[in-house]
Amino acid sequence: MTRRMPELSILRQTWSPYSDPRSTHTVQVGKVRVGGARPIVIAGPCAVESLDQTLEIAHAIKRAGADLLRGGAFKPITSPHSFQGLGIKGLEILSEVRRITGLGIVTEVMDPRLVSEVAEVADILQIGSRSMQNFPLLTEVGRAGRPVLLKRAWSATLEEWLCAAEYIAVQGNRNIILCERGIRTSCHWEYSRNILDLNVIKPLRQATPLPVIVDPSHATGQAHLVPVMSQAALAAGAQGLLIEVIAKEASRVQARCDGEQGIFPEELEQIVALTHQGAPAASFNSAASLVGGLAK
Question: For residue range 11-42, what is the model confidence (pLDDT) as tens digits?
């Protein structure tokens, strides 16, 4: 970085226990350590559509070795005529799925008025890219007492992203996970939904000890690109992956939200295996250890 960052409490220069650029502030979610020795995998459906659908995928991702279940009860969608999620009913489904499977829940909150209600179900509160600079929402999730997964907005600079995280931190919560999910460029939907900006991982980890994960599903928008971009993200030093999963090919057509980017549980299992091949999260120099994994 060529310009000086603002004085933020989440930066290494002001957070004395983490001045060493190799150190990470780990976020504990039940038995899962985000930012620990092994990159974690959060997986599940784009949207919670029914108990049967969510439970089937939850069992599948657990068998594949995923650490946490993702699923949207509230969906921020471009068109007001598209499926917006099941809302409170979706939260009830997620709660039941956690009871049955034991998987921790990652789900998005969009409305400051609903933070406490979503926090009763979520083990991690997700802030989507569209909400990254919704400052009243960031303030409320900072007060909620839950870890927060903060996605980068489509066009946000590194500084804007970190300042958004600071809105959460100043409320006394630095259990924040940063998630790169692709930035929009002129290639939009020419061959990929967005450009996955893996260049940002190293400077981000140099600037802050907060763990950094990557969402290759929303970045690419296409299932066949998710495995290789997951591999690239791990090689670049990502400390986890956020991946959308569908149960079977028929689900791709039937899904009410982003079915084209969901991968199958068998593919997820291969990606999870990559996270056990050494610890790229602990080193910026381990890219070579992952090259060739999924390509073989």
Answer: 999 999 999 989 999 999 999 999 999 999 99
Q: Determine how many CB atoms are found less than 10 A away from the CB of residue 190.
A: 8
Residue carrying the six token digits 């598209």:
82
Count other C-beta atoms under 10 Å from residue 230's C-beta: 33
The pair of structure tokens assigned to 42 is: 């959060």
The residue type at 125: L
pLDDT tens digits for 145-154? 999 999 999 9
Domain boundaries of the chain, sorted by first residue? 35-289
HSE-up of 181 (CA within 13 Å, CB side)? 23
- Looking at 170-275, list the stretches that DSSP marks H as alpha helix, in order from N- to C-terminal side: 201-207, 216-220, 226-235, 249-254, 265-275
Right CATH for 35-289 from 3.40.50.300, 3.20.20.70, 3.30.470.20, 3.30.70.260: 3.20.20.70
Rg (CA), the chain: 18
Q: Report the predicted TM-score, pTM, of the whole model to 2 decimal places.
A: 0.90
| Chain-centroid distance, C-alpha 108 | 10
38 neighbors 281 (Cβ within 8 angstroms) = yes
Closest CA to 215 of 207, 201, 202, 203: 201
Yes or no: say if 271 and 40 are a contact pair by the CB < 8 Å rule. Answer: no
Listed residue (32, 53, 38) closest to 262, CA to CA: 53
